[in-house]
Amino acid sequence: MSEIAAGQWRTVLDEAHAALRTIVEGVPADAWERPTPCELWNVTQVLQHATGDQLAFAAAISGGPGPAEDPFAPSGRIDGDKIAGLRAALDASARAWNGVADDDPAVPTPLPQGKLPAEVGAVACALDAAVHAWDIAVATDQPSPLSADLARPLLVAARQIVEPLRAYGAYAPAIDPAAESDEVAVLLSYLGRDPRWPGVQL
């Protein structure tokens, strides 16, 4: 698959948002401080980062409020309901993207690349949600939310946006996938994540 089909990005984004919401809602009460594949961050910090990124996409498109704190310096402290902020951020992101035409050639994004075609920007937004859903899932002993069908379009977008982002620390250097790697493992490896992160069974 070399391109993302017109309108396909809506399904990809919906699936990624649902994956992140479901995984976060499944975090055990005693697991919020567990380490994650994001080396310097625990589960709460990954949640804060993912929440902030969705708000940043929504704000770029709609002009509404962005994240209250730097998504790349999450405090690790959430007062009250840990999930409420994510739900609000996902709703804001979904509303913003709902107002974008399928074939809009220049949608504002918070990425250094600036405006991107709708199918690239939306799947970049989905990529962020989906990969952090995976981070939290494997850190909290939940099943991976990534499927081959979801990984394919995510990898298409990743190969268009990720390289410049590595310089900002948004993604680690890519690692070589094992010869027998499936599409999910190839995606994770490209994003600098070990698909066999401690305890993960492929």
TrEMBL record:
Residues 13-137 form the Mycothiol-dependent maleylpyruvate isomerase metal-binding domain. InterPro entries: CHP03086, DinB/YfiT-like, Maleyloyr_isom, MDMPI_metal-binding. Pfam families: MDMPI_N (PF11716). It comes from the Bacteria. This is TIGR03086 family metal-binding protein.
